[in-house]
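Deliverable D5.2: sample structural annotation.
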Amino acid sequence: MMQDGENVVASSSTTNEAVLYQKPDGTSMFEWREWKTFLGEQFRALKGIRSYQQFRFTSVSPGIIFLKKGEDNEETSYCVFRGGNVLRSRPQEVQAAGLSRERQAYLATHVRKYLRAKNKDITCPLSEE
């Protein structure tokens, strides 16, 4: 069952914590949302972001990022906010797509053999093809 997977993650390291997508009763623990499209409409990308080492944000200047390429470099600013009402809206909820056939086949071939018999069909069902 999922409890076995949760136990494996939790016992693999003192800093690991399993977060299950579904509660035992089948209800969802959280929602999937279309963040990439939503953020792309609301904010501008920062070209060359990897060249910066320091980022600073303030509540006084929402939507502005203050940047430095290094400790000794001068701070610059960049406006990422396109405008609109980003704080009052949320992206559209989407349903999780599930696993591709290729991923299901991989799990059935490589992971299934390590599961207890009672969990094999739940976690890594065999393909119906």
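Annotation notes: The mean pLDDT is 85. The chain has three domains: 1-31, 35-91, 98-129.
The annotation will be released with the project's public dataset once the embargo ends.
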